[in-house]
What does this fold into?
Amino acid sequence: MPSSLPGTLRVLIPASRIRKRVRELARSISRDFQGQEITLLCVLKGSFVFLADLVRELPGLVHIDFLAVSSYGSGVRPSGPIRLVKDVASSLRGRKVLVVEDVVDTGRTVAFLRRHLARKGARAVRICALLDKPSVRSVPISLDYVGFRIPDRFVVGYGLDVAERYRNLPYLAVFHRKNSAKADRPN
Ligand code: IMP
Ligand code: MG
It folds into this structure.
């Protein structure tokens, strides 16, 4: 991968709006799970910043675990089978799990995770996504908590990357690849 990635960034959601929305999501989550112990499951890598902010707004007992998935394919969207790159470290049997995801696009990742977590014996699975792009859904899935509904644009920052860049931006931005009318999808 070349070190320079020609493209431009346009702020989509500033840090202050993200902060406010994460607090609101945390309030809804703690209301729904009142006093119950939950496992927050961070889908690596894109969700690590979101998880870190969310967990600090949640009172009570939470377990944290991580998994990573990847998908391969040749089209503009990943179209190959979804593969588990790293599984959780703890047992999920009988646990209430809240999946913390960065972006839901086609919905294939969330559908895969639901099947995987059911096999692991999770008692209940809820999904919390920072971003939802409902216009590109190809698999019907339901989301329990959504930060922002956004149009079909390629977004970076606040944990999200393009070719491993921009994860450290404190805000969300649309990435436009140079010489491309629409932003590209690398993963
Ligand atoms: P899905 O399986 O098509 O729903 O894709 C979800 C995954 O694709 C996300 O977890 C991200 O890793 C990646 N993805 C989708 N859209 C974007 C984006 O705009 N920026 C960065 N990653 C994205
Ligand atoms: Mg993700």
User: Anything to note?
Assistant: The beta strands are 7-13, 38-44, 62-71, 82-86, 96-104, 124-132, 145-149, 155-156, 172-177.
